Amino acid sequence: MKDAGDILMNRVDILMVGFFLSSTAVGIYNIAVLLAGILALPLAAFNQLFPPVASRLLSNEKRSELKYLYEVITRWVFIISLIMAISLVTYRFELLSLFGEEFTGGSLVLTLFVLGQLVHSLGGANGYLLMMTDHQYLLAANQWAFGILNFVLNYIFIVEYGFIGAAVATASVFALLNITKTIELWYLEGLFPYSLSFLKPIIAGIFSIIPMHIMGMLLNGIYLVFVGTLIGVLTYIIIIISLGVEEEEKSLIKSLV
Length: 257
Fold this sequence. Notes:
39% of the residues are buried. By secondary structure, the protein is mostly helical. The mean pLDDT is 91. It has helices at residues 2-10, 12-20, 23-36, 40-59, 63-90, 92-97, 107-123, 126-132, 136-161, 163-189, 199-216, 221-243, 247-256.
């Protein structure tokens, strides 16, 4: 049952774009979705490491340690995802043009999906934690409810606005689902991953945009993407380190990887 809800959430927009729009629009949309999907990698990687550790902490009733683990994992997923998102949005035209100039028409679609994926990264392992704390039926209900909402909004928005409407509908529902799961986990289990420390990557991200834009005045094409991203990432890392990373947090990350 949950798998059907997952299809409504994760695939229905692609199916509906293919049904209602031209093959050109489908190609542009699919490339934008594919590029934005790169942002799912950090969360997927940490989610492979998180469940066994979280399960052990839950079975030993170490709630405070579980809460801290959830906070640290979520923050580091966001730290990694944010700089990836900044690079994708800053160099969206250069990246899309690699597939052909006509694909640059998907720049807004890419931006919208990047924002949706970024909100997803902010949710961290909320889905796993809901399941591990015996709320699997709530998780399935979430998938179905938001999957149906995704279907309805995609129909309305695609007919009216084309593939940009599909991106608005899907990215919005995707973000709202993750916000809902985070609130449910907070309300039901008292697990909330956010603190003022999340401001550090945001500040670093803002400052990393500056050299990336400066490189845009000097280079173009694939060279700009590689060099600009490298300089942006280095700036980001330097600022993150300058703002401070707790030793306990470093030790926890090392123990996981």
